[in-house]
Design goal:
This protein is an alpha/beta fold. It has 22 helices and 13 strands. The chain binds 6-O-phosphono-alpha-D-glucopyranose (G6P). Pathway: Carbohydrate biosynthesis; gluconeogenesis; Carbohydrate degradation; glycolysis; D-glyceraldehyde 3-phosphate and glycerone phosphate from D-glucose: step 2/4. It is found in: Cytoplasm.
């Protein structure tokens, strides 16, 4: 494995960062009238402007050279070829195959998996059609107009984010609910809003062993049966790779839509996990989502590194993270329907690249994935942007907006977009101390007042951002946007030398929770003092048990 920090390209980039320390982005823009053209590009219906990053031509060249030094193109080819690039699980990474409409064949361990992908997609189409046409009915003969998707992580965030994003495409009269948390309140709140005769429960779990999902699924089935529901088969379907566990749960394999271990959980919305999307927006729109992603895949696999949108987004991220010291990255969609995108990307990015061990098993010298957070603009502006503009940490950001809204109501959308643009400009330009002083003087403040206030009102600027635009947020552009991020994450993982496709870091807590569970009391029982953990965990267990005992009716 190439030790990326030891490469000459890494050293050149460190020198580039030093060379840029004495200038600012304002100057870079003033000195280069072509900066916007140079550092922007269009692909798959998306437009990316990354010119508001503090990069120089040297830095740009060295970033491309770095991508070559780690053989990014070679690893990309290995991914598309179905090689087991997920090394710790010995698995291929082929979510792109799920949305490849070019009729290419994909092979995993010598097996052509493309026919079974197409078969499953046809089954999903047929099932969605039967629900939408009313041919499939509930036990009492009513149409199934409500979906409750029970899943967590990739089996929740992806479909939920997409269903929310495609609200303008919702089919009339259909409702979707997403239950993920093992906190029973979420399931109870959902069940209180639905009619069991018209509800389809979609149990989504790659492994079909996840505690939260299995607990919610059991409770939903009990609720259904306790209230007189019959014909469970008509009301419960499963989306999974684990046929055996689905059968053991009591769902007929006929009612199971499958996917495969070469689809990572956080990359699974393109698979059967997308059933809840197809049910809410129609299969044609689901297919358009896949087609949009495929367009981005084709761009990613064929464009030169210098004009390759996911590659450039990744490289700029590496620059900000490793050479300018950005510790976090904000995802700021200026589209209310994308309100779950930051949460979705938290899993996609942080579960993929939040790692400190390289592919060779050694502790990495370099920083890896940043903290991802975000909220839709303009809400975030009135909350945490203060820190983006004037805080002590450098935080990079992606601003994402459609030029045309699905609700062109009055001047809402131009106002929204003006905020989008103003924020990226303000982050880049900042406001110099002298500008602040001149303004305060013009406002009639005295010299001591100006001296006291000016530092607080100055903005350092030089805060990096990318702007991602599209015409309208459609299934196609959304698909391309998600694929853009998937490939960005992949490229960064390759550069940082990590396996972006496992997630061992979620295991320890799961195991410990299992051992703690028997130590917690139900309201009806008393438990002895906990002794098997550290003093804090024992103390908290005792305190919880005590609070629950005291609350006993
Ligand atoms: O789909 P499931 O097998 O139920 O997994 C649901 C989620 O839980 C796991 O703990 C992983 O961290 C996630 O990557 C996964 O998406």
């Amino acid at each position: 494995m190439v030790e990326v920090t030891k490469t000459p390209e890494w050293k050149s980039l460190s020198a580039d960062a030093e060379a840029l320390a004495s200038t600012n982005m304002r100057t870079l823009f003033a000195d280069d009238p072509d900066r916007f053209e140079r550092y922007s590009l269009e692909a798959a219906g998306l437009f990316l402007d990354f010119s508001k990053n503090k990069i120089s031509e040297d830095a740009f060249d060295h970033l491309i050279a770095l991508a070559n030094a780690v053989d990014l193109e070679g690893t990309r080819s290995r991914m598309f070829a179905g090689e087991p690039i997920n090394t710790t699980e010995n698995r291929a990474v082929l979510h792109t195959a799920l949305r490849d409409f070019s009729l290419r064949d994909y092979h995993v361990d010598g097996e052509n998996v493309s026919p079974k992908i197409r078969t499953e997609l046809k089954r999903i189409a047929a099932f969605a059609q039967s629900i939408h046409s009313g041919a499939a009915k509930g036990y009492s003969g009513k149409t199934l107009d409500t979906v409750v998707n029970i899943g967590i992580g990739g089996s929740d965030l992806g479909p939920q984010m997409v269903v929310e994003a495609l609200r303008p495409y919702w089919l009339d009269g259909r409702r979707s609910f997403f239950v993920s948390n093992v906190d029973g309140q979420q399931l109870a709140d959902t069940l209180a809003q639905i009619n069991l005769e018209t509800t389809l429960f979609v149990i989504a779990s790659k492994t079909f062993t996840t505690q939260e999902t299995m607990t919610n699924a059991e409770s939903a089935r009990k609720w259904f049966l306790d209230r007189g529901g019959k014909d469970v088969a008509k009301h419960f379907v499963a989306l999974s790779t684990n046929r055996h566990a689905v059968e053991a749960f009591g769902i007929d394999p006929e009612n199971m839509f499958q996917f495969w271990d070469w689809v990572g959980g956080r990359y699974s919305l393109w698979s059967a996990i997308g059933l809840s999307i197809a049910l809410q927006v129609g299969f044609a729109n689901f297919e358009n989502l896949l087609k949009g992603a495929h367009l981005m895949d084709e761009h990613f696999r064929s464009a030169s590194l210098r004009r390759n949108m996911p590659v450039l987004l990744a490289l700029v991220g590496v620059w900000n993270r490793n050479f300018l010291g950005a510790s976090a990255h904000a995802v700021l969609p200026y589209d209310q329907h994308l309100h779950r995108l930051p949460a979705y990307l938290q899993q996609a990015d942080m579960e993929s690249n939040g790692k400190r061990i390289g592919k060779d098993g050694a502790v990495l010298e370099n920083k890896t994935g940043p903290i991802i957070f975000g909220e839709p603009g303009t809400n975030g502006q009135h909350a945490f942007y203060q820190l983006l503009h004037q805080g002590t940490d450098l935080i990079s950001a992606d601003f994402i907006a459609p030029a045309i809204s699905h609700s062109e109501l009055g001047d809402h959308h131009p106002k929204l977009l003006s905020n989008f643009l103003a924020q990226t400009e303000a982050l880049m330009r900042g406001k110099a101390d002298q500008e602040v002083r001149d303004e305060l003087r013009a406002d009639g403040l005295t010299k001591p007042e100006i001296t006291a206030l000016a530092p607080h009102k100055a903005f350092p600027g030089d805060r990096p951002s990318n702007s991602i635009l599209m015409g309208k947020l459609t299934p196609e552009t959304l698909g391309a946007l998600i694929a853009l991020y998937e490939h960005k994450i992949f490229c960064q993982g390759v550069i940082w030398g990590i396996n972006s496709f496992d997630q061992w870091g979620v295991e320890l807590g799961k195991v410990l929770a299992k051992s703690i569970l028997p130590e917690l009391s139900n309201l009806s029982e008393e438990k002895p003092s906990a002794t098997s953990h550290d003093a804090s965990t024992n103390g908290l267990i005792d305190r919880i048990n005590d609070l629950r005992q005291r609350a006993k009716p």
